Amino acid sequence: MFGFAVPDMGLLSDENKARVKSVYCGICRGIGNVGRPRERAALSYDLVLLALTLSDVYGVPFEESASRCERHPFKKQPLLVNAFSSYAAEMNILLAYYHFQDDVKDEGGVSPRLMSALFRRDAVAVSARYPALTKQIVSCLDEISEAEKHDIPDPEVPANAFGMLLGAVFAEKPSGVETDVPLETHKRLFAFGFTLGKAIYLLDAVADIKPDLRKKAYNPFIRSSPDHRMRLMELTLSQALDAYRALEPKTDAAIVENVLLSGVWSAYALKSAGRKRKGERAEAPAPGQADEKGGGDDA
């Protein structure tokens, strides 16, 4: 379900483009530090949003660095790293592992099994550092599986479960972070993660209506109207934006709001149209028009 909370690079300033890329590279480097280099292939820009938000709220700046990597062996790439980019790397490993586990249960096949096996060792290590959070993640994923198993027609049931999952990830205090924030701020972080996770699930489900119909797979939106789908997506994203602003961000609001107001719709349009090639970008649909892009058409 990840791949939606991504920036619309065409609307960012050059400075913020460079910042996003440097944080991304920092997380990528972090995955290599806590896991296997091959696990970097599962890195998503969604984790950049996590690192930026937590760094801003906790008031912990990034440290600048530079490094070569397998992808850029000849020229050092600028990196921005701190405890929150390390946490984002850990969450990428953990969530990717459960994603592949879910694929094994849903589809079987060789590729998901191989990817699940690749991530298992490091995911177990991360879960040992965050046992309560891992338990919450597994519980939420089980709720989604139950909704699929019983063909629950209300999209809010699985969407709320994924929201609880992402809310827990945002509200967790990462290991290695010496400072803390008030309890009320943890609650606000949870609220932002919850509404963002809920929105991600809804966008993903609507974009998947046609392929799910072909595969006869579960999708809670199959029986709903395009207007209902769009209203629910717009409402939830509006709630996510309000929850983010309640955090009173200071440094990276332009990037995060770019994601919430434009990036998610670009990602939705790409997936609805079946376009997943790297670097390909679609024009973000205006509110109320995303169903015309493909994912929200009637069955």
Task: Produce a short descriptive summary.
With 299 residues, this protein is mainly alpha-helical. 62% of the residues lie in helices and 3% in strands. The chain starts with 13 loop residues before the first helix and ends in a 27-residue tail after the last helix.
Task: Give a quick set of tags describing it.
Farnesyl Diphosphate Synthase; 10 helices; 299 residues; 2 strands; disordered C terminus
- Overall tally of structural domains: 1
- Level-1 CATH class name: Mainly Alpha
The CATH architecture would be Orthogonal Bundle
Global structural class? mainly alpha
Can you count the helices? Answer: 10
Distance between the termini: 21 Å
Roughly how much helix do the residues carry, as a percent range? Answer: 55-70%
Gyration radius (Cα, Å) is 18 Å
Shape: globular
Describe the largest sheet. 2 strands, antiparallel
Can you tell me the CATH topology? Farnesyl Diphosphate Synthase
Strand content: under 5%
Structural commentary:
The chain is mainly alpha-helical. The protein has a single domain (9-293), classed as Farnesyl Diphosphate Synthase, CATH 1.10.600. The protein is 62% helix and 3% strand. The protein is built from ten helices and two strands. The protein has helices at residues 14-34, 46-58, 83-107, 110-129, 131-149, 156-171, 183-207, 209-215, 226-245, 253-272; strands at 63-67, 77-81. The protein has a two-stranded antiparallel sheet. Helix 9 (226-245) packs antiparallel against helix 10. It is globular and about 50 Å long. The protein starts with 13 loop residues before the first helix and ends in a 27-residue tail after the last helix.
